[in-house]
Design a protein that fits this description.
Chain lengths: ~160, ~120
């Protein structure tokens, strides 16, 4: 069974590790074939009517995510590294609830063979930001995030 | 209800300062006057007042109208919005990976049925 967990690496990085019961080539293909990506990209209930992946360094990523409420959230990005079948690096704009870009995120995904399964590690790091969004970056540090969430929870009860 | 993006930015900017976060943590324990808030910090009252103004503009605290005391109280909504945003970002990937997991399972099942690795049916 695949497990997911969230932890913070160094340098304000979000790290998500997941093991898929599938060969590495297949997982890599699921990440790089637009027809495959369109099937799973985004939270539950989302569809991806547009999914264009120019799979090469400097190549563009364009995905239109459509929520169950019908609202379309465009997502754009640029590939930095493409190393089949073990590594993908791309930048993307992080969008707020209204679909406005807040900052740019560098995402690194690595795929490692693990006894017929594939261990996938996703690292997300903010690289470009506006002055207003800067404080959010601090929010990517686990300690700060957790204390903020705890604070918010305790406040929500009052 | 989600805040407008610029409102979220204001909240985030207000939260960027460790002193202001410490003030919020203090107020989470209960309302306090400016003097009480200033006590643990090695800074002047006007400096503390400036921090309180930033927090007030961001809607993170409200200040009483009682002329002399003007106690500060914390307001939860904007803070919760920020926490929600962080959670939203993590949820995006977690749920995507759930779907990827399902997809990989389906594809492999189909592959077995058709005898040779047909890796992406739709």
């Amino acid at each position: 069974m695949a497990t997911g967990n969230i932890m913070a690496g160094e340098e304000r990085e979000l790290v998500l590790t997941r093991v898929f019961d599938a060969p590495r080539e297949l997982v890599f293909k699921a990440w790089t074939d637009p027809k495959c990506v369109a099937v799973w990209w985004g939270p539950h209930g989302f569809a991806n009517p547009v999914c264009e992946l120019d799979l090469r360094p400097g190549g563009a990523i364009l995905i239109h995510m459509r929520g169950s409420n019908g609202v379309v959230y465009p997502m754009t990005g640029v590939y930095q590294e493409v190393v089949e079948p073990e590594r993908l690096v791309f930048t993307s704009a992080a969008l707020d609830d209204k679909g406005n870009p807040m900052f740019e995120v560098l995402t690194t995904v690595t795929f490692a063979e693990q006894g017929g399964k594939t261990k996938q590690i996703l690292r997300a790091r903010v690289i470009k930001t506006t002055a207003q969004a800067a404080p959010y970056i601090a929010g990517m540090e686990q300690g700060w995030t957790q204390s903020l969430e705890r604070l918010a929870e305790s406040l929500a009860k009052t | 209800m989600p805040l407008a993006p610029d409102h979220l930015s204001t909240t985030l900017a207000a939260l960027s300062d460790p002193t202001r976060r410490a003030i919020l943590a203090r107020l989470a324990a209960g309302q306090a006057t400016v003097t009480e808030i200033a006590a643990p910090f090695a800074m002047s009252m006007p400096a503390v007042s400036r921090h309180l103004k930033v927090l007030e503009r961001a809607g993170l605290i409200t200040r009483g109208r009682e002329a002399q005391w003007r106690p500060c109280r914390i307001t939860a909504a904007p803070l919760k919005d920020v926490a929600d945003w962080v959670a939203h970002y993590q949820r995006f990937w977690t749920e995507s990976f759930d779907r990827l997991d399902d997809y990989l399972r389906d594809v492999q099942k189909k592959g077995e049925k058709h005898g040779h690795g047909k890796h992406h049916g739709r």
